[in-house]
């Protein structure tokens, strides 16, 4: 088995299907599973239905259209009724005379069949004796029941309409063997064919293993319609239909009674000569399935690659947005800082007018205060003893070298000169400050 394109799970299912169904050709097992979307349970049930003669799980309704069947004698093996009678018991011909007689009869019969087909087609233009088919499935089931009661041993009949059988044969790439039964003509041959040939175990086994078997009585509307479609004139008659170049073609025609060995030989000849077309169809179907599977895998790989690219692009977009947010935050922070500095600068200008003027050195109420800034710079300023602590704070705040946020403390004992709340109006005298007092300015942002 060519395992190209099959996973381990699919290979295991093929082996399980072969073990459970007993189909020798493992390629057929693979094809059946592919057509059933690798559903092992459904594929096995379908094979059991076919073997037991039950309608396919996928057979359509009774009014399904049957695929067109090409009935061309140049494309089929024809085994007329004279062929069996022209042989002796050992299957050998009766010499040159017998062969010449058979050849002349065959040529005459071919000409007669062609002429009668033309006459029949011409007459059908002016009259229609076609029976109305109202219950094709009922016609088939009634025939199977009646046949089973009269001939218990027989191949498994397909329990469905002719259209369903054709569609299943085409779908499953199997041969369809059609048997048309008639109790009104060649009664002795029909009875012998059913009781001896179709009851033979080797014939039953071969048909059940290699093809679908459909039958009907020509006295029913369904059987009558099928007999016209295959141009049946001699009974019993069997035709084998198979797929060839994507068309359903009658590839073998067997007319009249013949012994089991002869029927088996005919079936094998037709089967062997036309199996190559089914194998070719299986190979094409498998190639289409593998191509579809490969295309699906490529599509899935493309989708995964596309999703991966989209995810990468999404992450890049998130990174770009995050970077933009960080840059925006930095710019906002810088603008806020700049705005703060500008606000403080304006505030210093505004508060400079609030600072009382410096008293003269000989003023009796003046107090000289030395401020030590965080930068180490020392500045000295005189204030009136009646000036408030807020005036002192405003002076320091408005000095170009002072920090933006600060506190003023005494040296010893160390205490903070609170310029907020009720203490902001406290005078220097009330705060206990004396002449030549040294105060420390501490940067609160440092």
UniProtKB/TrEMBL annotation:
Name any Gene Ontology BP term: ERAD pathway
Coiled-coil annotation reads 280-346
Where does it localize? Cytoplasm
InterPro entries from the xrefs? FAF1_2-like_UAS (IPR049483), Thioredoxin-like_sf (IPR036249), UAS (IPR006577), UBA_8 (IPR054109), Ubiquitin-like_domsf (IPR029071), UBX_dom (IPR001012), UBX_domain-protein (IPR050730)
Has UniProt tagged this entry with the keyword Transferase? no
Q: Which domain of life is it from?
A: Eukaryota
What are the GO cellular component annotations?
endoplasmic reticulum
The alphabetical list of record keywords is: Coiled coil, Cytoplasm
- Species of provenance: Tabanus bromius (Band-eyed brown horse fly)
SMART domains documented for this protein: UAS (SM00594), UBX (SM00166)
Major localization listed first in the record, in broad terms: cytoplasm
Q: Does the keyword Disulfide bond apply?
A: no
Q: What is this protein called?
A: Putative regulator of the ubiquitin pathway
Offer an example of a GO molecular function term for this protein.
Answer: ubiquitin binding
Q: Which residues form the UBX domain?
A: 362-441
